[in-house]
Amino acid sequence: MKETVTYLEMRARERFTPADPVPGLALEPLDRNSPLVVELQVRIGTPHGWRCASRTAQEWTAWFAEHPDRVFWLLSFDGEPAGLVAYDLHPDDEVEIETFGLVPEFIGRRLGGYALTLGIRRAWDLTPTVKRVWLHTSSVDHPHALPNYHRRGFRTFRTEQGERA
């Protein structure tokens, strides 16, 4: 399957354009050892063919060992788990939004813009000297993902064409 991966960045907090608030939608810290971390990544990624959706328990254990600094935040709607945001803190004061998404039953409820707003705010607040927030998305992700990133203030800095394995 052909795939386009788009890399996006926000180099100044002033570029950020928040979406209107959605009552009941919240972002809260999630312990990396919570079973929700794996469950949500699988539920979010399965419809889009994310590699994490088919990892075995052993592969997850190895993945967590390889990513000890990854930080997880739960998106909840009216107290129910609705999605996940995961961050990687990189050298030179960069924050990568490594995972962002909603579980299928919360898609189509007009939550994505504000969910991303909460995720971006948190990214800028993870360290006192963040200079750049960035992420990537794929053409096989939800069709609203790329437009949502652009509406929030991200700018494309690179694209790659290829075949998805």
TrEMBL record:
SUPFAM superfamilies attached to this UniProt entry? Acyl-CoA N-acyltransferases (Nat) (SSF55729)
CDD domains xrefs? NAT_SF
* Pfam families per record: Acetyltransf_1
Show the InterPro entries listed in the entry.
Acyl_CoA_acyltransferase, GNAT_dom
Domain N-acetyltransferase intervals = 25-165
Matching PROSITE patterns: GNAT
Under which name does UniProt file this protein?
GNAT family N-acetyltransferase
Q: Which organism is it from?
A: Plantactinospora sonchi
